[in-house]
Design a protein that fits this description.
The chain is built from five helices and four strands. By secondary structure, the chain is of the alpha+beta class.
């Protein structure tokens, strides 16, 4: 496994919910990342994020890691779910909220 793959793997395994995105939750740098943050915030779950714009190795490596060409990318308990379109479809169907409950993801504080 390459160095960047092992770094990504550690991040994915070390966080219940991790969003690889452009920008940060407070300052998303693209509409898709902004939508992904809004969906997670609406679900009320605790999550972490990685700003791929700050690390070109991660930005390219995450695409190979997931075999998914676009960012943002959401992982829940080590499982790749997809990007903002898939998140939106799952959210609208109630599936994302149900998955978060089934996986016993911590609620956001506040």
């Amino acid at each position: 496994m390459s160095d960047v793959n092992s770094r990504i793997s550690d991040i994915v395994k070390g966080n219940d919910v991790i969003l690889f995105m452009k920008g940060t939750p407070l300052f998303p740098q693209c509409g898709f990342s902004s939508r992904a943050v809004a969906i997670l915030d609406h679900c009320g779950v605790a999550y972490d994020s990685v700003d791929v714009l700050q690390d070109m190795e991660i930005r390219q490596g995450i695409k190979a890691y997931s075999d998914w060409p676009t960012i943002p990318q959401l992982y829940v308990k080590g499982e790749f779910l997809g990007g903002s379109d898939i998140m939106m479809e799952m959210f609208e169907a109630g599936e994302l909220q149900q998955l978060m409950e089934e996986k016993q993801v911590a609620k956001a504080e506040g």
